[in-house]
Amino acid sequence: MIPWLEPGDPFPPVSQALHTPNGLLAASEHVDAEQLLGAYPRGIFPWFGDDDPVLWWCPDPRMVLQCERFRVSRSLRKTLRGVCRSDAWELRLDGDFGAVMRECAAPRAGQRGTWIGGEILAAYGALARRGLAHSVEVRLDGRLVGGLYGVALGRMFFGESMFSRVPDASKVALATLVAILSREQVPVIDCQQRTAHLASLGGCEVPRAQFCAHLRQVVGLEPVPWHRYQDRRLNALLETA
Length: 241
Fold this sequence. Notes:
Layout: E1 4-5, E2 24-28, H1 33-39, E3 45-46, E4 54-57, E5 62-66, H2 74-85, E6 89-93, H3 97-105, H4 118-129, E7 133-140, E8 143-153, E9 156-164, H5 169-183, E10 188-192, H6 196-200, E11 204-206, H7 208-218
Parallel strand pairs: 1-2, 9-10
Antiparallel strand pairs: 2-4, 3-4, 5-10, 5-11, 6-7, 7-8, 8-9
């Protein structure tokens, strides 16, 4: 059994999360921006199916990507250099947060439905308007072909979802984010749960206690000056990738 959260209820301690399914902590009827701001500093995030209530998770272990360990293969390095030097490609921060979320919500091969529904779009959109959620957009000949979005609190970035419409576009978006965070001395990106794709890019699992201890150290720090990277092309950040 997991607790049902009414509006205004606090989240239970993450130590109470279930072992099976790994990390399931609580449920609620709705999700909004204030709930997200109560969840993320504690290492909690929402994830649920079309017919489920809002389910809140904090798995153990936790998948993270340490920026200094971002793995760039030889073929990806070639792609990044091409993107950096080509006028056909354009990398932006927060150019169209809503479009990135909608693309991430689009059905994917082998998946039924999406958890990124109307309430999720509204909740994260509200965070974006407050400067607490950000997107990276990858455009090719003016068309949005890849991107990612996530929540940013203090010196921590919580990755949520990414998409790709042409080969390697999501990797280009991730490389751009890593470049920004490395410049701003943000060491870790939260990736939530292990996937083979993230592991191939250098992601690794850490104990939940270690992850939550890191959050307590960094989410209250002075936030990244995201405005430095908005309203301009970011292709040059990949020069040293």
